[in-house]
Design brief:
Helix content is about 35%, strand content about 15%. It has about 400 residues and is an alpha/beta fold.
Length: about 400
């Protein structure tokens, strides 16, 4: 058990460290490569600069250099020097350090709506300036990377709520709070599902995102902000699945703690991604009517999928007919997987990995126990889900046809 916990911790750390951005001189970020796979910063703090902006956002709570006024309680001839005199007696470097210290003591306030940030999504799902249509600009303060990053993260939180709204209003999913038996005032998380997720007798699709800042309905925040909603969210997968007759459950594996006042309270049964996955399986998937279950999981979502197979082996083997992974960081050789589960993954799973090779080109695995790997048609980790979209559903359609034909033969 200790070895298994250590393995999960290692894989989670790997999912964070392998995809960190490299700052370039122009302020942009490039992805680091790990082995043969170019795995750009995964889902964590994945800022990308586009364009430039000469105008700083106004923040009245932070004083700028040169705007500080002399202390009026002291006369010009008094023994205490004025603030301006203090600045004049220091080097520019010392003044800059003082300004940074002053800014650190001030809590930055950012808008809580897209309109407040001056952005909106157009008809094609692209985020742009409300007035000019220009794409998102990361670098609004040329010498303040900390402010730019915090602004980006604040916008990301707004994006998260926006995607939740799309799941409910555009994809017609319902939000279900967990744990279902929570007492009044207890910390809760939530998932999303179609109305027929538990009653559809035929097939059910489970969507599991990766680690980091992403939440239910998202594959990659960077793509949502810098590319479009189609490539960065799970909406196209949900719509295609519903059109294909699936019930759908959208996991929310990173919503592990809820802020209550000044504290963050762990969510019972969902304090980790794996705990969340197991609880959703036990409380919803296991109780669903679907005979056939398919899974699409990205990055650390693959680790969660493997853990489901380990903990729920008998039911998993009986009901899951297809597993589509996108640049998964799982390890069948290190997660204490039984030989029967390894055989199952080799038979029904496929991992679309980041690669420079054309889409669906076989990519050799580093370990003989792994499931088949093919190229996602992109060498960027966060793009693998969208790049593989059509191929994934071709696989699901083929696998479903095969399993239903077997059922007919048995009848």
């Amino acid at each position: 058990m200790i070895w298994r916990v250590a393995t999960l911790s290692f894989l989670l750390t790997l999912s964070y460290l392998c995809f960190q951005p490299v700052k370039m001189e122009d302020g942009k970020e490039e992805s680091m490569e790990l082995g043969t796979q170019s795995q750009s910063q995964m889902d964590t703090s994945d800022s990308q600069n586009k364009g430039s902006n000469e105008v700083e956002e106004k923040n009245p709570s932070v004083e700028k250099s040169g705007e500080m006024k002399p202390d009026k309680t002291e006369s010009d001839s008094g023994s205490k020097p004025t603030n301006n005199e203090k600045s004049a007696n220091k080097t520019p470097e010392e003044n800059m350090v003082e300004e940074k210290k002053s800014e650190k003591t001030v809590e930055l306030k950012f808008p809580t709506t897209l309109e407040g940030f001056g952005y909106k999504f157009d008809e094609d799902g692209k985020l742009g300036d409300i007035e000019t249509g220009e794409p998102f600009v990361f670098k609004v303060r040329s010498h303040d990377d900390s402010y730019n990053q915090k602004r980006y993260e604040a916008l990301g939180e707004v994006i998260t709520e926006y995607v939740y709204e799309l799941l409910e209003k555009e994809a017609n999913l319902k939000r279900v709070h967990i744990p279902v038996d929570a007492s009044e005032g207890e910390a809760q998380s939530f998932i999303f599902m179609t109305e027929d997720a538990l009653t559809n007798p035929d097939k059910l699709l489970l969507l599991i995102h990766g680690s980091g800042v992403v939440r239910a309905g998202q594959w990659a925040r960077r793509l949502i902000i810098n590319d479009n909603l189609k490539s960065g969210t799970q909406l196209p997968f949900i719509k295609r699945a519903v059109d294909s007759g699936y019930g759908v459950i959208v996991f929310n594996t990173n919503e592990n703690r809820i802020r209550q006042g000044d504290k963050f309270i762990p969510v019972r049964e969902s304090s980790t991604a794996v705990d969340h996955g197991l609880y959703v399986w036990e409380e919803f998937v296991s109780k669903s009517a679907a005979r056939n279950i398919a899974i699409v999981a990205h990055s650390y979502g693959g680790v969660v999928t493997v853990e489901l197979a380990i903990e729920k082996e008998a039911e998993f083997k009986e009901r899951v007919f297809a597993i589509a992974l996108t640049d998964s960081v799982h390890s069948l050789s290190h997660q204490e997987v039984s030989s029967s589960v390894i055989k199952l993954f080799k038979r029904i799973a496929k991992n679309w990995v980041s690669s420079k090779e054309p889409l669906d080109t076989p990519v050799p695995s580093r370990h003989r126990y792994e499931c088949p790997q093919v190229s996602a048609g992109t060498n960027k980790h966060e793009e693998t889900s969208w790049s593989s979209f059509e191929s994934i559903f071709e696989m699901l359609d083929k696998a479903y046809k095969e399993v239903t034909e077997i059922d007919k033969e048995e009848l």
